[in-house]
Amino acid sequence: MTLRPINKLRMALIDFAERVYHWHMLARERYELMRLSDEMLKDIGVSRADAEGEASRPFWDDKGIKR
C-alpha cells in the first residue's frame, strides 16, 4: 500500500517538526550545561573544558547523542 501524496507531505512535516524540536532541546541543554558551577559539573563528572566544548557545538550537531 502506497501513501497518498498528502499523507507523505504530512509525515514529512511531522518529521521536520520533530527534528526542529530535538534541535531546540539540544541547544537548551547545552546552554543549561554552561550555567552549571564547576562544583556541579564535577558532581556529574564533567570538566569545565568538556562543558565548553559541548556547548560550542552547533545546534544541529547531534553526532554521538542517543535519541
Count of individual helical segments: 3
What is the radius of gyration? Answer: 17 Å
Number of beta-strand segments: 0
Euclidean distance between termini CA atoms: 29 Å
Overall outline: rod-shaped
Q: What's the story with the biggest beta sheet?
A: none
Query: What letter string, H or E per element, gives the SSE order?
Result: HHH
Mind explaining what this structure looks like?
This protein is an all-alpha fold and 67 residues long. The chain has a domain at 15-56. 67% of the residues lie in helices and 0% in strands. The protein has helices at 5-35, 38-43, 48-55. The longest helix is centred in the first third of the chain and has 31 residues, at 5-35. It starts with a helix and ends in a 12-residue tail after the last helix. The model has no long low-confidence stretch (mean pLDDT 92). It comes from Sedimenticola thiotaurini.
What would you say about this model in short?
The chain has 67 residues and is mostly helical.
Topology:
Elements: H1 5-35, H2 38-43, H3 48-55
Helix pairs in contact: 1-3
Pfam families: YjiS-like
Protein name: DUF1127 domain-containing protein
Domain YjiS-like: 22-52
Q: What are the salient characteristics of this protein?
A:
67 residues; mainly alpha; 3 helices; YjiS-like; DUF1127 domain-containing protein
